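Students often ask why inverse folding is considered easier than folding. One informal answer: many sequences map to the same fold, so there is more than one right answer. In these notes we will look at a single instance of the problem. The structure comes first.
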């Protein structure tokens, strides 16, 4: 077996009890650098392979995805494991059997040690996590938001920072995770018209110094988010390089804040120069 020297750990608990929230903390305690959670292979704070099962359209598809039943889904994860050859790995699952099945489907050794959620979380903490999952549809991915933002364009994402003291003289545990609401949550699916992006861009352009008029706006929607192309007329006398840079940064931030969509690209082209008359000056 290729991974016969690897030690496989399981982290088990019912759905929605806080496993992903505590995954990195458990891994840190066991000196594990690799985690498998809901279809993702995570190394430290970086997603190195896989697609999140939380993007699946139904709960049944989510389970299938998390178990790596599909050869196309497990292939990139197996290739990444061969590349990095970790000595230890932590697999998250809702049961002992699920964790073992994931290990089996990825060609890993049998699970040698299992940590249960009730060993690291109180009953009250688990009930609170479950309540949030059921009533608000929130899930946690154990990586920083910038790592998954492009893959979850159109979902509602929030960063979550965790600080936990380990006692006097010991290094504290500090981590950033991401909260998302998947497509099968109580919010349901939603779409955003191209017109919305155009209106946001044109409104921001009219407020931006150095921009006189919007000449053309084109929006192309992709699975990863919108690509936006804009042509503008600029006002003579402004530092156009600085104005356009500032406008693009603000526009991307506003669109992502207002729509939860990841902006794949934003091209702003100055097509002509407007020279104000003496009266306008």
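Output (designed amino acids):
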């Amino acid at each position: 077996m290729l991974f016969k020297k690897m030690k496989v750990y399981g982290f088990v608990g019912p759905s929605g009890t806080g496993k992903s929230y505590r995954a990195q903390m458990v891994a840190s305690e066991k000196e594990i650098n690799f985690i498998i959670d809901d279809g993702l292979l995570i190394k430290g704070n970086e997603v190195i392979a896989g697609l999140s099962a939380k993007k699946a359209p139904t709960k049944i598809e989510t389970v299938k995805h998390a178990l790596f039943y599909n050869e196309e889904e497990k292939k990139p994860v197996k290739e990444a494991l061969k590349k990095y050859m970790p000595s230890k790995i932590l697999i998250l699952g809702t049961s002992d059997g699920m964790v073992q099945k994931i290990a089996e489907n990825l060609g890993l050794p049998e699970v040698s040690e299992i940590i249960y959620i009730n060993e690291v979380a109180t009953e009250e903490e688990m009930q609170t996590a479950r309540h949030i999952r059921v009533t608000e549809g929130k899930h946690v991915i154990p990586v920083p938001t910038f790592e998954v933002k492009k893959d979850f364009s159109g979902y509602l994402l929030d960063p979550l920072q965790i600080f936990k003291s380990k006692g006097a003289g010991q290094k504290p545990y500090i981590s950033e995770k991401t909260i998302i609401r998947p497509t099968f949550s109580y919010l349901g699916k939603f779409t955003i018209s191209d017109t919305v992006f155009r209106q946001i861009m044109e409104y921001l352009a009219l407020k931006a110094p150095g921009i006189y008029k919007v000449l053309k706006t084109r929006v192309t929607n992709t699975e990863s988010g919108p690509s936006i192309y804009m042509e503008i007329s600029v006002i003579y006398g402004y530092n156009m390089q600085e104005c356009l840079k500032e406008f693009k940064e603000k526009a991307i931030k506003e669109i992502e804040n207002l729509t939860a969509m990841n902006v794949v690209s934003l091209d702003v082209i100055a097509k002509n120069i407007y020279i104000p008359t003496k009266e306008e000056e």
